[in-house]
Design goal:
With about 200 residues, the chain is an alpha/beta fold. It has one domain: 3-Layer(aba) Sandwich (Rossmann fold). The protein is built from seven helices and six strands; from the N terminus they run E-H-E-H-E-H-E-H-H-E-H-E-H. The longest helix has 13 residues.
Length: about 200
């Protein structure tokens, strides 16, 4: 673990329900960012057994000290809803958040809605969240089998975020061919350049 990175940007990659740090494009993106010299944290959260917001916050508490004004968070699927809960409580704003296939509220899928309830099915304080992070990017596909596009539009609107719609990308997971994610890396690099 890195104790003091002297103001260098820390990255956090947060997986979703039924997910883990070694799936999809997470290891690829972690490798690319580490090659550029950035510390990257990819916590493993309990799912689907023991998947509650309380349990995920308990796991994340070990990483909380690395979340500072130079941090960038990246969430996939349920990851964005988890990160919204984290941001809502932050005192020091972070640099940016990149949300992929994110949502709030129910998805209309009883299996997911039950285990996602404590994360997503609530009233968020969007004012507090936008105060805690000034730059939001929302990526979504036009054929996501789990999260309807209208959810991304709602999320982007609530966050005053840039919405990037990627045709035919499914849930941006391995099943949809996403073991790499060059577009996301490009947007992150562009943001880093513009924030210097």
């Amino acid at each position: 673990m890195v104790n003091d990175n002297n103001g260098k940007t820390n990255f956090f990659i947060i997986h979703g329900a039924y997910g883990h740090p070694q799936e999809n494009w997470f290891p690829w993106l972690q490798g690319k960012l580490e090659k550029l010299g950035y510390p990257v944290f990819v916590p493993k959260f309990p799912t689907p057994e023991g998947q509650t917001l309380t349990n995920w916050l308990k796991v994340f508490s070990k990483y909380q000290k690395y979340l500072n004004q130079d941090s960038i968070v990246i969430g996939h699927s349920l990851g964005p809803a988890f990160l919204l809960n984290v941001l809502q409580k932050l005192k020091t704003p972070i640099k940016a958040a990149f949300f992929v296939s994110g949502f709030t509220g129910n998805l209309g899928n009883p299996l997911f809605d039950k285990i996602n309830e404590t994360f997503a099915n609530k009233q968020f304080n969007w004012g507090k969240i936008k105060h805690a992070c000034h730059n939001f990017y929302v990526f979504h596909s036009d054929n996501d089998p789990y999260v309807p596009l209208k959810k991304a539009k709602e999320l982007a609107k609530n966050l005053d975020a840039k919405l990037v719609i990627v045709p035919g990308a499914g849930h941006f997971n391995e099943k949809a061919g996403y073991t790499t994610f060059p577009l996301l890396l490009k947007e992150i690099k562009n943001f880093l350049k513009s924030s210097l």
